[in-house]
Amino acid sequence: MSQIETIMEHNKKFVQDKEYEAYITDKFPDKKIAIVTCMDTRLVELLPKAMNLRNGDAKIIKNAGAVISQPFGSVMRSLLVAIYELQAEEVFIVGHTGCGMASLNSEHMIGEIKQRGISDDVLNTLENSGIKLRKWLRGFSNEKEGVTHTVEIVKKHPLLPPNIPVHGLLIDSTTGELEIVVNGSEENSHS
């Protein structure tokens, strides 16, 4: 059985048994926070537990490495929607130990892309249209650097209200221990 069939079978029972009732909430985050974190599978349940979050507490935006690479891309837009439309008052950038983006090798990934059937013509067309794949597919040298870089992009965004604290945390992928990399509340009080 494929995953889609397994998921749909489970979902039918989930709805019939009204298991969803335990998760009913509204669109506004109860704790008034927005989080950008990594899509790593280890964080699916660990991050909310480690941060004492329940369904409805936070807006959680996930991508590879918890990185905002485009100041006017979809992740930053999501943060701004969370702030201006959904009443988030603090932003957390949460990276994690053992992140694959810290060791991402763009040359290796381009090799994998070619092996999976994407032609050199497609790659050349992208390069010729201004998309620098080697830069776009590059990770960061260490997890703290990734968090700090993303915090800076958010803090310097021209549409971010000046009173919004932007915190940077690193979570241990095994224990869930949180380390403050950037305390946005302290930085706001010194501004």
Automatic annotation (TrEMBL):
<keyword id="KW-0479">Metal-binding</keyword>
<dbReference type="Pfam" id="PF00484">
    <property type="entry name" value="Pro_CA"/>
</dbReference>
<feature type="binding site">
    <location>
        <position position="38"/>
    </location>
    <ligand>
        <name>Zn(2+)</name>
    </ligand>
</feature>
<feature type="binding site">
    <location>
        <position position="96"/>
    </location>
    <ligand>
        <name>Zn(2+)</name>
    </ligand>
</feature>
<feature type="binding site">
    <location>
        <position position="99"/>
    </location>
    <ligand>
        <name>Zn(2+)</name>
    </ligand>
</feature>
<feature type="binding site">
    <location>
        <position position="40"/>
    </location>
    <ligand>
        <name>Zn(2+)</name>
    </ligand>
</feature>
<dbReference type="InterPro" id="IPR001765">
    <property type="entry name" value="Carbonic_anhydrase"/>
</dbReference>
<protein>
    <recommendedName>
        <fullName>carbonic anhydrase</fullName>
        <ecNumber>4.2.1.1</ecNumber>
    </recommendedName>
</protein>
<keyword id="KW-0862">Zinc</keyword>
<dbReference type="InterPro" id="IPR036874">
    <property type="entry name" value="Carbonic_anhydrase_sf"/>
</dbReference>
<dbReference type="GO" id="GO:0008270">
    <property type="term" value="F:zinc ion binding"/>
</dbReference>
<dbReference type="GO" id="GO:0004089">
    <property type="term" value="F:carbonate dehydratase activity"/>
</dbReference>
<comment type="similarity">
    <text>Belongs to the beta-class carbonic anhydrase family.</text>
</comment>
